[in-house]
Design brief:
With 310 residues, the protein is α+β, with helices and mostly antiparallel strands. The chain has 4 domains: 85 residues, no CATH class; 105 residues, Tetrahydropterin Synthase, Chain A (2-Layer Sandwich), CATH 3.30.479; 40 residues; 37 residues. It has 9 helices and 8 strands. The chain has a 3-stranded antiparallel beta sheet. Strands 6-7-8 form a 3-stranded antiparallel beta sheet. Helix 4 crosses helix 6. It is elongated and about 150 Å long.
């Protein structure tokens, strides 16, 4: 945050000092120059002692090189030329993990990048124990990413991205214990593979989809055949079902008068043939010799007229 308070105090004191020095310069110029120089130095020292920290900032104060206190947020004062203040941002920070070339456990080269999220929870430790905590934690994230992905196969890398991110996050948090930082998350952004491997995986996925489609079609044909067999059984056991089905088919040909339907074999004749077939089967099962199927036995002419018996 810009320390506008310090600059405002400097200019206000400078104008106040000018109000005293200008009249003095008319009577005693040498004395006015000395007073002006002393006033400017004092103004600079006083203005530099005023510090301002935002709500998300903390100031680590070192007195003669030794940790003294932690100040902020808001206005605070330090001793000029003795105290030194280091401002630390305590908000969640994001560090990009550059693209890394990694070899998986099954010897597949991949390039992976990600982003690490962390925040400073102990500013004094982050400043004192680590030279540059942002750079250091970024390097730890890169090495941990290589170590974890090197232990995974390509299929695990593609299907278990969230678990891999949690593993890398745990490794970074374990290695940075005592740095005054807290890792809040890590996400893998992109995983790139060689083009020939992408083509092979695309062909494999296409073959798998075609396999599932053929299996689904075969199951549908099986269910359709079972339904047709059940329908045929129901029509065979129900008298008149075939005739009703025939009438439904005729009705479905079209409601307009331009359609003409001709039945080559009347349904009554078909039922008569079926009755004759059933009668012949019954006689055969009862041990009698079946009589020849004639017009008399079929019911076309009355019995006794032209009937031939064995």
């Amino acid at each position: 945050m810009v320390n506008y308070i310090s600059g405002l105090v400097f200019w206000v004191l400078l104008f106040v000092g000018a109000g005293f020095v200008v009249p003095m310069a008319q009577t005693n110029p040498l004395r006015a120059i000395l007073v002006a120089a002393g006033w400017i130095v004092s103004d600079l020292i006083l203005a530099s002692s005023i510090k301002l920290a935002a709500q998300w900032e903390r100031a680590v104060v070192f007195r003669l090189g030794k940790y003294h206190a932690m100040k902020g947020p808001g206005l605070f004062l330090i001793v000029p030329l003795i105290d030194q203040a280091r401002i630390v941002d305590t908000r969640i920070l994001a560090v990009d993990i550059p693209t890394q070339q990694v070899i998986t456990r099954d010897n597949v080269p991949v390039t992976v990048d990600g982003v690490l999220f962390f925040k400073v929870v102990a500013p004094q430790d982050a400043i004192i124990k680590v030279q540059d905590y942002r750079y250091a934690i970024a390097q730890y994230a890169q090495t941990s990413l290589r170590d974890v992905i090197g232990q995974m196969s390509l299929d695990q890398l593609l299907t278990e991205r969230e678990q891999i991110a949690h593993m890398i996050e745990g490794n970074v948090e374990k290695d940075t214990t005592g740095w005054g930082v807290e890792v809040t998350g890590l996400r893998l952004q992109d995983i790139n593979m060689p083009e020939d491997l992408k083509k092979m995986m695309s062909r494999q996925a296409s073959a798998e989809r075609e396999k599932r489609a053929n299996i689904t079609k075969a199951e549908g044909d099986k269910e359709a055949a079972m339904n047709l067999a059940a329908a045929a059984k129901t029509m065979r056991e129900s008298p008149g079902a075939m005739q009703l089905r025939t009438l439904q088919t005729i009705d479905g040909l079209g409601p307009t008068a331009s359609n003409t339907v001709i039945l080559a074999v009347p349904t009554d004749i078909m039922e008569l043939v079926q009755n004759v077939s059933d009668l012949t089967g019954n006689l055969t099962r009862n041990g009698h010799k079946s009589a020849p199927v004639t017009a008399a036995t079929s019911g076309i002419i009355p019995p006794g007229e032209g009937l031939v018996r064995d």
